Amino acid sequence: MARNKGNSETYVRPIRRLLIGIMLLCFFGLFILWRIDSPRVERLRAGLVDKVVPSFEWALVPVTKTIGMIENFQSYQRLYDQNQELRNELRQMQAWKEAALQLEQKNAKLLDLNKVRIDPRYTYVTGVVMADSGSPFRQSVLLNVGARDGIMDGWATMDGIGLVGRISGVGQNTARVILLTDSNSRLPVTIQPSGQRAILSGDNSIRPSLDFIETPELVRPGDRVISSGDGGVFPPGILIGQVAKDPDRRLRVILAADYERMDYLRVLRTHESERITDPGALIIPERVDPQSEIDGIEDTGQSAEAENG
Fold first, then answer.
1. Closest CA to 197 of 209, 215, 181, 223
2. Using CA of residue 52, residue 55, residue 59, residue 63, what is the dihedral sign?
3. How far is CA 62 from the centre of its chain?
4. How far is CA 194 from its chain centroid?
5. CATH number for the segment(s) 123-269
6. Residue ranges per domain, the chain?
7. Does this model's pTM top 0.90?
8. How far apart are CA 180 and CA 152, in angstroms?
9. What pLDDT is attached to residue 282?
10. DSSP bridge partners of 123
């Protein structure tokens, strides 16, 4: 076995050296061939490339695929970095969007307060809603205007579009507003165009009900509901909402005021109505003595004659 191994090494070494020498000679020849600057050698090089390179396309496939994978990985890395930047920008844009929406809502409220046309006999004070009662049994809000601004109990409040409620409790710097949705709220209203009178009753829901309608058959969903002014508590003609029917076929009112976004409220300064001290005088006028009336007529005639004379 040792002898055979030695013989194989004796034949392999010269062959290996011969192959290495031939390869080095070929490489040197190719180097010399590519370095020669001659038109004939240039044509030879071109023909050699045309013959050899197409047959080696299969050998270039792994290199091409590897280069493509490296480029794709780099492009994926760039996409990942861009995605992270876009995510950060999206978070910032969402914060700016929320701020813009809040400013837009406040701007819309202020624009509504400026655009609404109300009775010129009534002036108003605009206050900021400071807090909500947050109770399911009481619907009210707190305004930052009070007695220092001349606010009085019973005055109507609106958000610039529709009636919201009335003042119920005034402090020096704040005032409490009982909303129309409160269970203690009762308001006489007029339904247009039928002219039916009714009572708007709050029941702590977003849609208060209509009670004591004169002729319910004349009232249809979509009719406008305005304040009637009966009792002198609320000014007449202020928009409240539209009539709607619930699943129980009970008539309710979809309020025009936006109760979910009450930032500002307008308090209407209502002029005091005439106070009646003697209710009986409205039915039976005060009796006048006939003799005194005749004497007054005679005195008037004598004074007229004296002036003519």
1. 215
2. positive
3. 58
4. 35
5. 2.40.10.340
6. 31-115, 123-269
7. no
8. 18
9. 44
10. 269
